[in-house]
């Protein structure tokens, strides 16, 4: 891809980042209980306004007033399951973008049935998972252990493209390299740090950030690249300061807060296809 296209795309990434901080979008999150506080804090640090509204009797109306909806199926209770489906229906009716995080779908069969209900009855603009989860949803063999991917990333981009074309959405697979595609355009991000795998919830936080950027950009491919690149760059910077998981977790939120357009422009290692 020409340098002109690359410059245009990274400029759009920067614009999306700045737009989020200007608009402070309301992001409704139905997410797992292990990481709910981290998702709220990372959205606040990024510049969005999180709301962890998941009560079945409230979610339909709350989705109407939200700028985006983030659905994470990691620790589904029965009420959470029904709330997630109902929220996605409301999002479809009210034109609210939805980010779906299919946590542990390759390990727990029930997850797949819930995901299929959301895809059938509601709307999904972005599917963001680890490489094992995305390959599983695309019908390819994958290596997983519970919520973790053990997959080496072979054919990850092909799996993303197939899934994106099947559901007409953006698909992102995170791992040592991150793969994002809308089925036509693709990006491979090589920023990040192994330390992100040493704290619980890094993937969930990325998903929440995807909800934030989806709220302010019509181009969900660019918005997803923006969120994932932001998390990776913040992780790199945090690891330069903090060398152990506990302090890294705190510094990660700090570095999301202090992230700049200039850092996104100058330090992103992205291959555009």
TrEMBL record:
Binding site for ATP: 128, 174
Enzyme Commission no: 2.7.1.50
Enzyme class: transferase
Pfam families: HK (PF02110)
Gene3D superfamilies noted in UniProt: 3.40.1190.20
UniProt catalytic activity: 5-(2-hydroxyethyl)-4-methylthiazole + ATP = 4-methyl-5-(2-phosphooxyethyl)-thiazole + ADP + H(+)
Domain of life: Bacteria
Residues binding substrate: 52, 201
Cofactor(s) it depends on: Mg(2+)
UniProt pathway annotation: Cofactor biosynthesis; thiamine diphosphate biosynthesis; 4-methyl-5-(2-phosphoethyl)-thiazole from 5-(2-hydroxyethyl)-4-methylthiazole: step 1/1
Keywords: ATP-binding, Kinase, Magnesium, Metal-binding, Nucleotide-binding, Thiamine biosynthesis, Transferase
InterPro entries in the record: Hyethyz_kinase, Ribokinase-like
NCBIfam families documented for this protein: PRK09355.1, thiM
Protein task: Catalyzes the phosphorylation of the hydroxyl group of 4-methyl-5-beta-hydroxyethylthiazole (THZ).
Descriptive protein name: Hydroxyethylthiazole kinase
Organism of provenance: Clostridium tanneri
Gene responsible for this protein: thiM
């Amino acid at each position: 891809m020409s340098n002109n296209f690359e410059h245009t795309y990274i400029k759009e990434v920067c614009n999306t980042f700045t737009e989020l901080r200007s608009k402070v979008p309301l992001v409704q999150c139905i997410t797992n209980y292990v990481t709910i506080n981290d998702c709220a804090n990372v959205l606040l640090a990024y510049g969005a306004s999180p709301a962890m509204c998941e009560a079945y009797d409230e979610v339909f109306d709350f989705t109407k007033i939200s700028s985006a909806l983030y659905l994470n199926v990691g620790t589904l209770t029965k009420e959470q399951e029904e709330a997630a489906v109902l929220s996605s229906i409301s999002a479809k009716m009210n034109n609210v973008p939805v980010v779906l995080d299919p946590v542990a779908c390759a390990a727990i069969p029930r997850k797949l049935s819930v995901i299929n209900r959301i895809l059938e009855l509601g709307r999904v603009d972005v599917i963001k998972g680890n490489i094992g989860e995305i390959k599983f949803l695309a019908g390819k063999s994958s290596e997983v252990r519970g919520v973790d991917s053990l997959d080496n990333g072979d054919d990850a981009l092909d799996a993303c493209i197939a899934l994106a074309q099947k559901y007409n959405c953006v698909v992102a697979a995170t791992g040592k390299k991150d793969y994002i595609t809308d089925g036509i355009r693709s990006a491979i991000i090589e920023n990040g740090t192994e330390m992100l795998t040493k704290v619980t919830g890094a993937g969930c936080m990325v998903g929440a950030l995807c909800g934030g950027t989806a709220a302010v950009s019509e181009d969900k491919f660019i918005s997803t690249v923006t969120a994932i690149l932001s998390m990776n760059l913040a992780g790199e910077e945090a690891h330069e300061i903090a060398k152990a998981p506990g302090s890294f977790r705190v510094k990660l939120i700090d570095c999301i807060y202090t992230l700049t357009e200039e850092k996104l422009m100058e330090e992103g290692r992205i291959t555009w296809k």
